[in-house]
């Protein structure tokens, strides 16, 4: 689906694209301002969701948070962005003129970004690099951004937990991290760390990736962050640094709803989508091995308590 959208978009004339951007931005900013006016009336992040460039409703959530939280440095770092057509920070770059660094393991993807108008119009650095827990702190320091970064967005389809755990050179005010809803809502589990982790190579289904939501919530607590909810499509979790939670509505600081994922990502050995039910997805990877964080041991996916 993403490729077809890109093809249609690139067939538009330059004027058509600019008009489309303008209309999207105006509408999104109107929604953002309406959400801001509601202020403390917001009880869950789902209420402020909207999509411009993000995969789901993350654009709206980010706009809401940057309006109610004091952000000293208007800077962001996002990694795992592919060619940046779909990303959590692109609207932030274009609509709010933040400075940012993006990273992706594909040089081709980063070269594509460099050829776009946004690369000379805005303060953006596109870095082709495969991120590991061994190199993440060095890469963050090379951004030149202050330790008090505005937003960090993590989505590398594999070692997300291990990479966030390793970060110690920056303390972003907002952290967004992808999680794997297939691992359920109770246990603290993640994929086993491999520096060269590849989601498809690890299991052809593409379902064996990342960490459970509870694993990220516990890690956030260790690192001084409060979990405030997820997007309603069960993809990304949002965290705010503890010294800033006084600016948030109290409703966002209590138990947030668990959303069942709606996307059907499972693939067969040839890479074709299977459109499986959640139960069928579970069965497909139940014999795969993952890491139990609390008990510090390996276990099979089938041993996870998925609910409750």
Secondary-structure-based class equals: alpha/beta
**H and E order:** HHHEHEHHEHEHEEHHEEHEE
Query: Total helix count?
Result: 11
Report the end-to-end length measured between terminal Cα atoms.
34 Å
Shape: globular
Taking all Cα atoms into account, the compactness measure Rg is 19 Å
State which percent range the strand residues make up: 15-25%
Which residues sit in consecutive blocks of at least 5 with pLDDT less than 50?
Answer: none
Protein model, in words:
This protein has 308 residues and is an alpha/beta fold. The protein is built from 11 helices and 10 strands. The protein has a 7-stranded mixed β-sheet, with helices on both faces. The longest helix has 25 residues. The radius of gyration is 19 Å and the shape is globular. The mean pLDDT is 89.
Summed up, what is this model?
This protein has helices spanning 2-11, 14-38, 58-68, 90-96, 107-115, 118-121, 136-142, 160-166, 199-202, 213-222, 278-285, and strands at 75-79, 99-104, 124-128, 151-154, 174-178, 189-190, 225-230, 236-241, 289-292, 297-300. It has 308 residues and is α/β, with parallel strands linked by helices.
Describe how the helices and strands are arranged.
Elements: H1 2-11, H2 14-38, H3 58-68, E1 75-79, H4 90-96, E2 99-104, H5 107-115, H6 118-121, E3 124-128, H7 136-142, E4 151-154, H8 160-166, E5 174-178, E6 189-190, H9 199-202, H10 213-222, E7 225-230, E8 236-241, H11 278-285, E9 289-292, E10 297-300
Parallel strand pairs: 1-2, 1-4, 2-3, 4-5
Antiparallel strand pairs: 5-8, 6-9, 7-8, 9-10
Helix pairs in contact: 2-3
């Amino acid at each position: 689906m993403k490729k077809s959208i890109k093809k249609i978009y690139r067939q538009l004339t330059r004027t058509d694209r600019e008009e489309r951007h303008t209309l999207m931005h105006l509408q999104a900013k109107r929604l953002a301002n309406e959400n801001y006016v509601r202020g403390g009336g917001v009880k869950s992040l789902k209420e402020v969701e909207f999509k411009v460039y993000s995969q789901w409703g993350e654009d709206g959530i980010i706009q809401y948070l940057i309006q109610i939280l004091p952000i000293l440095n208007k800077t962001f770092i996002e990694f795992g962005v592919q060619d940046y057509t779909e990303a959590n920070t692109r609207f932030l770059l274009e609509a709010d003129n933040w400075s940012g660094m993006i990273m992706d393991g594909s040089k081709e993807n980063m070269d594509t970004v460099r050829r776009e108008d946004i690369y000379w119009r805005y303060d953006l650095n596109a870095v082709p690099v495969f991120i590991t827990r061994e190199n993440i702190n060095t890469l963050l320091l090379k951004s030149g951004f202050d330790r008090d970064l505005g937003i960090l967005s993590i989505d590398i389809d594999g070692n997300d937990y291990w990479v966030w755990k390793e970060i110690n050179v920056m303390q972003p005010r907002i952290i967004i991290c992808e999680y794997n809803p297939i691992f359920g809502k109770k246990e603290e589990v993640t994929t086993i760390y491999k520096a060269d982790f590849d989601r498809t190579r690890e299991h052809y289904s593409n379902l064996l990736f990342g960490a459970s939501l509870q694993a990220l919530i516990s890690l956030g607590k260790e690192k001084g962050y409060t979990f405030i909810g997820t997007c309603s499509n069960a993809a990304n979790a949002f965290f705010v640094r503890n010294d800033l939670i006084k600016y948030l509505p109290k409703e966002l600081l209590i138990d947030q709803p668990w959303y069942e994922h709606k996307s059907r990502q499972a693939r067969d050995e040839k890479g074709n989508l299977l459109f499986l039910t959640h139960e069928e997805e579970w069965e497909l990877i139940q014999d795969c091995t993952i890491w139990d964080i609390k008990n510090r041991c390996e276990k099979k996916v089938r041993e996870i308590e998925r609910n409750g």
